Amino acid sequence: MSSNLDQLYRQVIMDHYKNPRNKGTLADDAVTINMNNPTCGDRIQLHLKVEDGKIAEAKFDGEGCSISLASASMMTQSVKGLSVDDAIKLAHVFYEMMLGKEYDEEALDLGDIEALQGVSKFPARIKCATLAWKAMEKGVGQNEAE
C-alpha cells in the first residue's frame, strides 16, 4: 500500500475516533450487547433496534483504542438499514479483510471500513477492530431468539 493511501486511511480512522458516528444509547426496546477485549481494555456497549428483519438503528458507547472505537463507528454507520443477513455477510467480509484474506470488493461497498484493512498487519490489533462486529452478530442473534 502506498504511503499516501496509508495516510488517508489513518485520517479516516482518526476522524471516526475523534468524531464517532452513532455514539449514544437507544430506548428500552433495543437489544443491548456488552463486550470487551481484556487484552487491550476495549469495552463496547452496542444498542441495536431490529425491525422487520432489518437493522433500523445502531448506536454504541464505550471506551478503548482508536481502532476499536473507529471500527464501532464505521460498523454502526454501515449496518443501519441493512437486512440482518446482509449485515452478517458484511461482518464476514470484514473478518476476511482482517485476516488478510482475499475478499470480494465488488460484492459490498465497504466505504470507510476499507481504511481498517491495514490492521491485518498487526495481529494483536485485530481483536480491537472486530469487537463491535462480534457484538453486532451477537445482538442480531439475540433479537432473532426473542
Automatic annotation (TrEMBL):
Belongs to the NifU family. Residues 9-128 form the NIF system FeS cluster assembly NifU N-terminal domain. One of its GO terms (biological process) is iron-sulfur cluster assembly. The lineage of its organism: Bacteria, Bacillati, Bacillota, Bacilli, Bacillales. GO terms for molecular function: iron ion binding; iron-sulfur cluster binding. This is Nitrogen fixation protein. InterPro entries: NIF_FeS_clus_asmbl_NifU_N. Pfam families: NifU_N.
